[in-house]
Amino acid sequence: MKTRRHEKMNFAVIGCGALAMGQHIPNIARSVKTRLHTCCDLSDVALKKCQDQYGALHVTKDYRAAIADPEVEAVCVATTEKMRLPLIEAAAKAGKPVYCEKPIATTMEEAYKIRDVVKQTGIPFCIGYNRRNSPAMMEAHRIFREHMEHPKPCAWRWNREGDGRPHLDEDGTAGMMVRINDDWWSWKGWAFDKTHAPHGPMLFEMVHFTDMCNWFMSAEAAEVTALECGMLNHGVVIRYKSGELATITMCANGSFGYPKELYEMMGNGGVVVCDHMLEIRTAGIEGAPTRQTFPIVNGERFPDVGTEGGLHGWLAKTRASCEASAARGEATLDTFAMGPDKGHASSIDRFVDEIRGTGPVVCGVDDAVAATRVAFAAIRSAHEHRAISMDEV
């Protein structure tokens, strides 16, 4: 499908629930690269909000009509996972690019069908693993992969045995640790509904982090071992074919008063740490910045607090927000909204560049399926209490 290179790209958003309203719809509406052309949902209230608050040009309850509209150039699929296959099939048949929220499907069979549809039709496709587009994560990935592929050992690295040091086959092999701190009191009702989310956060949240591990390790998973305690505590270990190892610890009995995500990557004698997508720290990599900080989104409510930025700045602002909320005697979303740039807006903008041929593939269907396979291997491992080979998934 031809697109008008110098004009805003017309998007139809199908599924106007909380995530779409919180991210995709406002992001598309205010971007210089996109236009909120059509919003599609079954809710009259949601459609009215799309028009009144975000300026959608058209609204409809018929996704077929939204996709078929010749003015619609790309489709953002933000429905429940159960609807994604028919929507993607319809968009692909119309030759229209698709940005799809994660997870791609609730079964591997559906995920493979979606992959086949995308490949057979050749439409541009992007899965919503937005963290790949966070400025902090992109910089951390750049530093780490450059170090892994072109090591720059520091002059002070202690080589105790010198020339007598033994050879190890795994020398330089990368490792990664991911820690997720969440608070399940904040979850929406559908998260507890097995008819909607049969695998719980081991699928709908885990794919974010299995994708991060795949991306940073730049390798193909071989085996997954996992343990879980109900819905709230999970531990996953991924072994890659080339020897890398990644560990994910996910706990939903935590607090938003503390950073949600910590990523630590090690390899070739170097370390890259990305803390809450607000701060990067490095060690052992010649020429790499020791510390970089990134802007705090929505942090202007406390302009005189946390002025040092980065992780400590966020902690100070968060503490001030929590204290202000407690003084009012009410819960607040301010603390949750005040945080890092997780890449939602740039995901769409970069996808537009991909569609127009002016940018790289952002996060395609193969990446979507790969992260989903690892998540399903973890789900099966936790259920069967054994390591699962990826050949079994």
Defining key terms:
6-stranded parallel beta sheet; alpha/beta; Rossmann fold; 12 helices; 393 residues; Dihydrodipicolinate Reductase, domain 2
Describe the overall structure:
The strands form 2 sheets. A 9-stranded mixed sheet has the order 14-13-12-11-7-10-9-8-15, covered by helices on one side. A 6-stranded parallel sheet has the order 3-2-1-4-5-6, with helices on both faces. The protein is α/β, with parallel strands linked by helices and 393 residues long. The protein has 12 helices and 15 strands. Helix content is 35%, strand content 20%. The model has no long low-confidence stretch (mean pLDDT 94).
CATH class of the largest domain: Alpha Beta
> What Rg is obtained from the alpha carbons, in whole angstroms?
22 Å
Largest sheet: 9 strands, mixed
Looking at CATH, the homologous superfamily of the largest domain is Dihydrodipicolinate Reductase, domain 2
Q: Got a strand count?
A: 15
Structural class: alpha/beta
Distance between the termini: 35 Å
Residue-averaged pLDDT = 94
Number of domains: 2
